[in-house]
Specification:
By secondary structure, the protein is of the alpha/beta class. The chain has one domain (29-172): Aldehyde Dehydrogenase, Chain A, domain 1. The protein is built from five helices and eight strands, in the order H-E-E-E-E-H-H-E-H-E-H-E-E. It has helices spanning 20-25, 53-72, 74-82, 109-117, 132-144; strands at residues 29-31, 34-36, 43-44, 48-49, 101-104, 122-126, 151-155, 169-172. It has a four-stranded parallel sheet, with helices on both faces. Strand 3 and strand 4 (48-49) form a beta hairpin. It starts with 19 loop residues before the first helix and ends with a strand.
């Protein structure tokens, strides 16, 4: 049933067998709290749109803007929103300005959740299409009220991060 303004939800059907929402996620990036069209138009295999410098700059700016507020929630507040049983200690020294963490590689939902629980705003640059687990994590946390910018998920080659080494902590997996 639809209200006339929104199309009915799509589901895999016998005609296509394709989950169209999942297929469309490969052509977007999760940035600033929502699935957004990439600024880059470079396509990769899979198919997926590869993040370029403008995409990374947008995600890091959103992460930097969200960092202090996310950290101010405290360990317990972050753990509740992330669905964790217990709080993790802050990863930052008191009074230090929180910098976003740029994760380059194939980190999964559990590792990203632990980084966020420790107070980090995280930008993942993954060289392969986003896994169903990462897509589900972003969707679940968005519905739970994760502040925009605390988590960004982009696809692209690791070398796209090279120009950003001076402005973010970089983890490679």
């Amino acid at each position: 049933m639809t209200d006339g303004r929104h199309p009915p939800a799509r589901a895999p059907g016998p005609a296509t067998g394709i989950d169209e929402d999942a297929a469309e996620r490969r052509l977007t990036h999760f940035v600033a709290g929502d699935w957004r069209a990439p600024l880059s138009v470079r396509m990769g295999e899979g198919p997926m749109v590869l993040a370029g410098p403008a995409d990374l700059a947008r995600a890091l700016a959103a992460a930097r803007a969200a960092g202090a507020g996310w950290r101010a929630r405290g360990g317990e507040g972050r753990a509740v929103l992330l669905g964790l049983g217990q709080a993790l200690p802050d990863a930052w020294q008191p009074g230090a300005e929180p910098e976003p963490v740029l994760v380059v590689g194939r980190a999964g939902p559990r590792r990203l959740t632990r980084m966020m629980a420790a107070g980090a705003a995280v930008v993942l640059l993954r060289p392969a299409p986003l896994s169903p687990g990462l897509v589900a994590l972003a969707d679940r946390l968005r519905r739970a009220g994760l502040p925009p910018g605390v988590l960004s998920l982009l696809t692209g080659p690791p070398e796209a991060a090279e120009g950003f080494a001076q402005i973010a902590g970089i983890c490679r997996f």
